[in-house]
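Quick one: structure for this chain?
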Amino acid sequence: MTSNKQTQLDQIAADIVKNNVCPDLAKQAKHLVPGEGNPDAAVMFIGEAPGKNEDLTGKPFVGAAGRFLDELLESIGLKRQDVFITSILKYRPPNNRDPKPEEKDAFWPYLLAQIEVIRPKLIVALGRHGANCFLPDLKIGQAHGRPQQWQDWTILPLYHPAAALYNGTMRQVLFDDFKVITTLIRN
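Got it. Here's what it folds into:
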């Protein structure tokens, strides 16, 4: 099953390149960052877009925020290999600017295709951009750590791990919110 799913995920990445999604972003990017992890994952993490380190390596969440994400995963007994990690945008926006609505729209069908292949029990939306793709009116400050329904999926909006790098009080909030993940995937 896994190899078939991985083949499908590889095809989605190839389709992004073939279909020339967001050519302006693609032109300035070093790598496509389609996401990685376990194709049979019960939990799928979705951030907003690759940053500088992700663009250099082609891997999601590898900078300081990624190291903190690893720490958060470890706190609930998971490893990176247990989950699937991706972003809405698959190319880095210049100077790490916020993704534009038309860029999110262009990548949306590919993100949905990834979700359909993986079929996670839980989608963890990291940060405002990740959450607002599914739930446009959601305020992350009010909804973080509380599961939401979107179509047939359970979405858990959480603060982005990078938020804790700039605001130390967020670290504990994220550790607490991460505990919700284990409760949701056990059921």
